[in-house]
Amino acid sequence: MSNKLVWPAPTSDVPDRSEESAFQKGSAYVDGKIIPIEEAKVPLLDWGFLRSDACQDTVSVWDGSFFRLTDHLDRFERSVQRLRMDTAPVTRSNIHRIVHKLVAVCGFRDAYVQIIMTRGRPPIGSRDLRLCSNSFQAFCVPYMWIANPEKQEIGMAVHVSRRVRIPPQSVDPLVKHYHWLDFEMGLFEAYENGADTVVLTDLDGNITEGPGFNVFAVIDGVLRTPSFGMLDGMTRRTVMELCNELNLDVTQETISLERLLIASEIFLTTTAGGIIPVSSVNGTGIGFGSVGEQTRRIHRSYWDKRSSGWYGEPVAYAQKALLEP
Length: 325
Ligand code: PLP
Prior knowledge:
9 helices; D-amino Acid Aminotransferase, Chain A, domain 2; 27% helix; alpha+beta; seven-stranded antiparallel beta sheet
């Protein structure tokens, strides 16, 4: 097997319209209309903005195909229900049509699409949550990487902070939400320590997750990922399925910082980049200075299977029936 990480070459012949249009930087769905991303605005009084009272889901498009769109729509519905929001502002079939259209107007082959439900606002003078009309919005931008392919080959330097991830007793981590101040302050701490990103712990000092990713570690030959206090990431779920196919042992369990430091391999999983190798934790090198064997196999399998259409749904770039309102 080659020693390099590989990404599939594009194969589809859908034209890239991004250079020619007002949508070259992306598109947004706001107030029932599709508009260029740079024109999209959030109403100041929406509690999504004033209180981080919102949930979202993010799905990727690679080589003209959505990945696990049905599963992302299921997770979004779960988040909306857990936040006691109303699914009425938009039906599932509408969301489905909107995300296709957002990508199609841009013509992006590789994209990052976010669907969002905010609490909305109550009438002026009221603070009654029950009077808010929830509001749906969405956007599409070019594909985003937590670490681009060059960086992935080197691996990310991770800083594990003693800062505690907002606990499940306070905010349900199974809701994909925007409570990120703990991550963001942790990121500044990581930068000050010469690291690329941060991982936060729970109240018992166990690893949870980082800004936009889950964590896997190979310890004593077994793949291990935290079982508590984090989002059930779609890429995490995908990796566990791949491990079963590849006959790799995988478990969900608590992982202390001390155990993480003896891992032979560590990688991060995210919609924004897939499987991201880690080269160091708190300044300690992980493995033998190059991407480990299990990480490489999973990375390869993830991208190979995606390019062969696994869990894929081709973007309806030209299917008028799906795109018309
Ligand atoms: N954990 C958090 C807090 C996230 O925000 C994300 C994604 O944005 C993840 C984990 C990874 O989830 P997924 O693989 O679905 O992108």
